[in-house]
C-alpha cells in the first residue's frame, strides 16, 4: 500500500480540509498494515481481492462490491488476501458527524462507487470546486443510507475463555469439536458459553462459528484456492454443503462471487 506524501497526510489530519480525500491502494508486497488510527474517518472501496480490517471489536471483511467504514480515532489494522486494489477515502471530521459511530461493512451503491472513483482524480488536500463539493456531499448521503452487510462482520468476545475458543476456531475453522467439548476445553459450562457468547457478540455461537468459516473461505478463494479445496479445508463433507452455506450467508455461490471479483479487475 503506497504511503501518502507528507502534504497529503497533513491535509488528512486537519478537519477543516476538503470533505473527501481519495487515495488509490494496492496490496503489493505488504500483506498487512500495522495497527493505527486517523483523525479523519476512512472508507475503503475494494475493486478486487479481499481486505480484512481488524479492530478491538472484531474483524470486518471487504470483498469487491462492499465498502468498509472506520470512524475517526478507531484503532485498526488491515490484512490483504490475494492481489487487492481499490481506494482509501478519508472523510472530514465535520462530515463524520452524520455517519455511523462504529466500524461496519456496507453494500457499495453504484452512485457511491462512481463518486469515489471520480474523487481519485482530485488533487489530494486541495480545496474542492463547487461541483466537487456537491459530489462529496452525495457520497456522504449515500454512505448514510448504505445497507450494512452483517454477514461480513465477525465480532470477537472479550471474556477470556470465550476469546480462547474464538481464537482456536479462527486458527482452525475445520475444528469439529462440539460446543460441549470446546466448553470443557476452555473451562466453562456449555450453558454459560452459549449465553455469554450471544451477549458479547450479538449472535449465537453456532452462527458465529459459521461466519468464522465464511471469513476463511473468502480469504482462501481470494488467494485462488479451488472451491473444492476450500470446502474440505473448512471441514465440510461435501462441496455442495459448503456452497449452500456460502449462498445462505452472501446470497451468491463461491463461483459467482469470484466471477464478480475477476470482472471488477478487468
Notes on the protein architecture:
It holds the Pfam family AraC_binding. Keywords: DNA-binding, Transcription, Transcription regulation. Residues 160-260 form the HTH araC/xylS-type domain. The chain is of the alpha+beta class and 266 residues long. The protein has eleven helices and eight strands. Strands 1, 2, 3, 4, 5, 6, 7 and 8 form an eight-stranded antiparallel beta sheet that branches. The longest helix has 18 residues, at 205-222. The two termini are 20 Å apart.
Number of helical runs? 11
Helix proportion range = 40-55%
Name the beta content range.
Answer: 15-25%
Order of helical and strand elements:
HEEEEEEHEHHEHHHHHHH
Number of strands: 8
Which word captures the global form? globular
Largest sheet: 8 strands, antiparallel
Give the C-alpha Rg: 19 Å
Cα separation of the termini: 20 Å
Which stretches are poorly predicted, pLDDT < 50 over at least 5 residues? 1-13, 262-266
- Summed over residues and divided by their number, the pLDDT gives a mean of 86
Domain HTH araC/xylS-type: 160-260
Protein name: Helix-turn-helix transcriptional regulator
InterPro entries: AraC-bd (IPR003313), Homeodomain-like_sf (IPR009057), HTH_AraC (IPR018060), HTH_AraC-typ_CS (IPR018062), RmlC-like_jellyroll (IPR014710), RmlC_Cupin_sf (IPR011051)
Keywords: DNA-binding, Transcription, Transcription regulation
Amino acid at each position: 500500500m503506497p504511503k501518502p506524501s507528507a502534504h497529503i497526510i497533513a491535509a488528512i489530519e486537519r478537519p477543516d480540509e476538503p470533505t473527501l480525500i481519495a487515495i488509490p491502494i494496492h496490496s503489493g508486497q505488504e500483506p498487512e498494515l500495522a495497527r493505527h488510527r486517523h483523525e479523519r474517518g476512512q472508507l475503503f472501496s475494494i475493486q478486487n481481492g479481499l481486505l480484512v480490517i481488524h479492530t478491538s471489536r472484531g474483524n470486518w471483511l471487504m470483498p469487491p462490491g462492499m465498502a468498509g467504514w472506520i470512524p475517526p480515532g478507531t484503532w485498526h489494522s488491515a490484512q490483504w488476501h490475494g492481489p487487492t486494489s481499490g481506494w482509501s477515502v478519508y472523510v472530514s471530521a465535520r462530515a463524520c458527524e452524520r455517519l455511523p459511530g462504529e466500524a461496519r461493512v456496507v453494500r457499495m451503491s453504484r452512485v457511491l462507487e462512481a463518486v469515489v472513483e471520480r474523487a481519485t482524480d482530485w488533487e489530494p488536500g486541495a480545496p474542492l470546486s463547487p461541483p466537487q463539493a456537491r459530489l462529496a456531499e452525495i457520497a456522504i448521503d449515500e454512505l448514510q443510507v448504505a445497507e450494512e452487510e452483517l454477514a461480513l462482520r465477525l465480532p470477537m468476545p472479550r471474556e477470556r475463555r470465550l476469546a480462547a475458543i474464538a481464537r482456536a476456531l479462527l486458527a482452525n475453522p475445520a475444528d469439529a469439536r462440539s460446543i460441549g467439548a470446546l466448553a470443557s476445553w476452555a473451562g466453562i459450562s456449555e450453558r454459560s458459553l452459549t449465553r455469554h457468547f450471544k451477549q458479547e457478540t450479538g449472535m449465537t455461537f453456532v452462527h458465529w462459528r459459521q461466519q468464522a468459516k465464511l471469513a476463511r473461505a473468502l480469504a482462501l478463494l481470494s488467494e485462488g484456492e479451488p472451491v473444492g479445496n476450500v470446502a474440505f479445508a473448512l471441514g465440510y463433507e461435501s462441496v455442495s454443503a459448503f456452497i449452500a452455506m456460502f449462498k445462505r450467508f452472501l446470497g451468491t455461490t463461491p463461483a459467482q462471487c469470484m466471477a464478480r471479483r475477476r470482472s471488477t479487475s478487468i
